[in-house]
Each structure stands twice: as C-alpha cells, then as structure tokens.
Write the structure tokens for this entry.
Amino acid sequence: MAAISRLDVLRLRNLSEVHISPADSINILSGDNGSGKTSLLEAIHLLGSGRSFRSQKLEPLIQDTQDECIVFGELQNGISIGLSKSRKQGAHVLKVLGERQRSWVEAARHLPVQVLNSESFSLLEGSPKVRRRFLDWGVFHVEHEFVSNWRDAAKCLAHRNLLLKERNLDRKQLLAWDVELCRLADLLDESRSSYFAAFLPLFEEILRTLISIPTLSVSYSRGWDEGRSLEDVLSGNLIRDIKYGATQNGPHRADIVVRVGRLGADEVLSRGQQKLLVSAMKIAQGHLLSRINGVAGVYLVDDLPSELDAANRMRVCGLLAELGCQVFLTCVDQSELENCWPAALLPRKFHVEHGKIWQ
Ligand SMILES: Nc1ncnc2c1ncn2[C@@H]1O[C@H](COP(=O)(O)OP(=O)(O)O)[C@@H](O)[C@H]1O
Ligand SMILES: [Mg+2]
C-alpha cells in the first residue's frame, strides 16, 4: 500500500524538525494560519514528485537560516524514500530504499500523490499543459513504458525544433526525426486514449454524486487531426512549423477538453462547480489507479473548509473515505472536518503550531 507510515521533515519552511506517524487512512492537520500545515503537505508532495505544488523554485522551501532541507518517508510496504534539497546547485540527493536515484521515476511510482487545493482550478483554467500533465500522471502510474516513450518523443521534438530554426533546412535529417517522432506519437496516443477511455466512465459516475452538469462533455484530444496520420500532418504543415520555428502538432499538444455546451468549462461554471468538477477528476484518477494497480495513492487536501461548503465537503470526504486511501487534510478549526466521515473511520488528528506538530 502506498501509505506513509512514518514521516520526518527537517528544515523545510517553518518545520524545523517534525516526526509523525500518520494513519493509513484519514489524517487531519489543524492549526492557525501560518502554523505550517501546507508546508507539511508540500514535504509529502516533494517525496512523490520532487516538486513543490506551491512554488516553482526550490529556494523558498529551505528554511531561511539553513542550507538544506530533508524529507524522509517510510511507506507501509517497507519502501523508504529520502531526499535532501540543498541551496548548492546540483547537490540534491534522492534515495529509494537507500539507493541513490538519478530521476524521480522510482520515487513517483511508489508514492502517487495528488493535490486538491485552491489552485486545482488550473486544471480547467490553465493551459493544455496542466491537463496533459494530469493525464500523463495517470498513464505513468499504470503503464511502465510510457515514461521512456514520453522522454524519447520529447527528445525527437527538441531535435526537430532545432532543425526547423536552421537557415538551410536539412530535409533528410528532418525526415529521420519525423519517422521516429511519429512512431512514438502513436504509442503515446494509444496509451493516453486507452487510459482516458477507462477514466471517463469512472469520472462521470463520481461527478454524478457531486453535481449535475447536463451539457458537460469531457474528451481527449491527441494533439493532431483525428483521421490523419501525424506524418501527413507534419509534412502538410512544414511551412508553418518553419515560420514558428517549432512543431505545431503532435503528442506534445494533447489535451483533455472540458466543455459545457460549446463553451469552456471555466467560462461557464461557478467557482464552486469548478471545484467539484476538479475534485471528481482527481478522485476518479485514484479509483482508476486503485483498480489497475491496487493502490489509489495519497491525497493532499489543503484547506477544504474554505474551498467547499459543508454539504459538498461531506460528499468529497465521503468519496475519499470510500477510496480507502491515505489522505492528509488541513483546516484551521478541526470541527469543520469532524463529522464528514463514516462512523467506523476514526481520523488521526494532528495539531500544528509554530512549525511543531503533535498528535
Ligand atoms: N523558507 C522559509 N523559512 C522559514 N519559514 C518559512 C519559509 N517559507 C515560509 N515560511 C513560514 O512558514 C510558515 C508556514 O506556512 P504554511 O505552511 O503556509 O502555513 P499554514 O498552511 O499552516 O497556513 C509561515 O509562517 C511562513 O511565513
Ligand atoms: Mg496553508
């Protein structure tokens, strides 16, 4: 099970030294604003992705007066993940089961983390990149070859784009990259579209328990014209690609298109409706992972009470409880998350104050 049974956080934001033993189900962190709740979620997110969900930059994560931060997590299945992030360039260390890693692939595989917070809207409002990342996160967790195909395609694309920018285009070389790019594009499309086909009915079922949006349509778009091969599209659009100095169509343009009637979901739906829609998408992804891999991953839910009203909070908590996975939720006042759980499920409660956390 991908549940964290022990977590140590050192020198990350205001968390100087934290050691906790979370429950494998629901964990509630309460405390005043600025006490360190989101920072703890950030630490967990770092373990499963190498990134913060709050800042692109690494610097702000490390405690002001310190040179490095450390996060160590032990999972219920015996896997351990440890990382240190340093202010010194290139001095980061990531270990899985004590073995140094060159990429995040291993750690991410063991610890699938998803975030529900005030930024979750970006899944609807943001660029296709955000939705593509959401989709690819899911595909990554259910299909082992996906990540290497994805990386190889990115390499091909980078080479192709470099060639496009050259004054005298080397068509022979371009064709060679195109052949490989098209092969990989078909593989990526196959993986993404079959994942999406499994995701969609689950999402629709979950959404129905939260909200009714009769004219909602959610579809996968592969990044180039349906019914035409990418080879065909690339050769037909060569002049345009040269003009932009970049490939305009391909798997790097894949998207999940969310519409209400003929308009974008973010243009029509209220904030509250958008929150429920995004919650349904993320919870559906956990269900799919659980169905295929037997693990739903870990959910980091930041400040749900300020995101949803009491009735919807109950519904979202009910869905998370049903999923049977590990969840970390933050709130200011514990009573706001108290009666949201089935009677048999006793959340583990933590109090956060000035960077200290106790049960
Ligand atoms: N690099 C840092 N070093 C020390 N303290 C920091 C750093 N970054 C943020 N903080 C402080 O950490 C505290 C915890 O923030 P946060 O986790 O967002 O609190 P909460 O989610 O409980 O409202 C804040 O008071 C913030 O000022
Ligand atoms: Mg916070």
About this structure: The mean pLDDT is 95. Residues 32 and 332 are 5 Å apart (CA to CA). The chain has two domains: 1-112+295-359, 120-292.
